[in-house]
Write a structure and sequence with these properties.
The complex is a heterodimer of chains A (175) and B (138).
Chain A lengths: L1 H8 L10 H22 L6 H17 L14 H4 L13 E9 L12 E3 L2 H11 L8 E10 L5 E10 L10
Antiparallel strand pairs in A: 1-2, 1-4, 3-4
Chain B lengths: L2 H32 L3 H17 L5 E5 L1 H9 L8 E3 L3 E4 L7 E4 L4 E4 L5 E6 L2 E12 L2
Antiparallel strand pairs in B: 1-7, 2-3, 3-4, 5-7, 6-7
The chains are: A alpha+beta (175), B alpha+beta (138).
Chain lengths: 175, 138
């Protein structure tokens, strides 16, 4: 065994100890250290859950403080103005999605009025998928909230709110 | 005279030197990465954006940026360019090589002074804070 090891190490006729085998070990060890360090220090901090929750809470609070005269009061509700949300971030290709609709509390039926969906509609489907599959880095995180309210004409309603964030941040396009 | 002994010593010396170079290179890389900017840039940008999202007009936000400030000084980068807040994005830069951007959805005006850093002595330890004022856009 010792003789075999010696023969591996002493590759050259003149007894040169610098062998390919040794360099291979150095490369393997070096690659391992570099890879682990790079993976650790380039880790990604995911805040989608917190962001979607903040967004859902914002909408919940602002609808909650809104005066419901009747079940169609929210038809003219300008969510961006009333809830102080930047409309530019809900344009095409947005990383956000908001949806809310009104349900009759007694019957559970959705009261058809104006459709209240804003932002990237594709995230709505991703929210359904995300519930059923394992969490994925590139999927949005969605928060649901239900608000109970009574209109001035005495009708009990539920406002179901869905807020989604798929915001990952990154390097700006111009830099 | 002892040619064989000279050869062995030379080989051993080269072997040790090459090993030293290799391990010193690895150590240098690990040290540089551990004090690197990327995770800190991400951390500050996201923390500031989330705080802005949660705040209402009239709020003053102070965030501890001591570690980031030290990195900026170490990277010989101008601290005035460390944190920039536009009307919808937070941009954090701790070195001249890269900027990290994270948007915020709160439709407010975020104001900072010309030199937004405030030095505070906390039980003998110097901490550096970044101050922001949240105002209504009107």
């Amino acid at each position: 065994m010792t003789k075999k090891l010696k023969s591996i190490c002493l590759e050259y006729k003149n007894g040169n100890i610098l062998s390919v085998w040794w360099f291979a070990i150095l490369v393997i060890v070096g690659s391992g250290v570099v890879l682990s360090t790079a993976l650790f220090y380039s880790s990604y901090v995911d805040v989608k859950a917190i962001e979607s929750e903040i967004l859902a809470n914002r909408i919940y609070d602002c609808i909650n403080s809104y005066n419901f005269n009747n079940i169609h009061s929210l038809d003219d509700f300008d969510i961006f103005k009333e809830c102080r949300i930047n409309k530019d971030l809900f344009a095409e290709g947005s990383n956000y999605f908001i949806r809310f609709f009104i349900k009759d509390k007694e019957t559970g039926e959705i009261i058809i009025g104006k459709e209240h969906k804003f932002g990237n509609y594709a995230l709505e489907k991703d929210c359904d998928i995300q519930k059923k599959v394992l969490a994925n880095k590139h999927f949005p995180y969605c928060t649901n909230k239900i608000l109970e309210a009574t209109t001035k004409d005495g009708k009990s309603i539920l406002v179901e709110i869905l807020a989604a964030s798929n915001n990952e941040g990154g390097v700006p396009n111009d830099k | 005279m002892n040619k064989r002994a000279d050869e062995i010593v030379m080989e051993q010396a080269i072997f040790i030197i090459l090993n030293l170079i290799f391990f010193l290179t690895l150590l240098y890389f690990v040290y540089n990465s551990s004090s690197g900017a990327f995770v800190n840039e991400q951390y500050y940008a996201k923390q500031i954006a989330l705080m802005i999202d949660e705040s209402k007009p009239g709020t003053v936000i102070s965030i501890d940026v001591t570690d980031g400030y030290k990195l900026v000084k170490k990277n010989k980068f101008d601290e005035k360019n460390m944190i920039k807040i536009t009307d919808k994005d937070v941009l954090v830069r701790l070195s001249s090589s890269r900027t990290y951007q994270f948007p915020y959805f709160n439709n407010v005006l975020v104001e900072t002074s010309d030199y937004p850093f405030r030095i505070s002595n906390d039980n003998g330890k110097e901490r550096i804070f970044f101050d922001m004022y949240i105002q209504d856009k009107g």
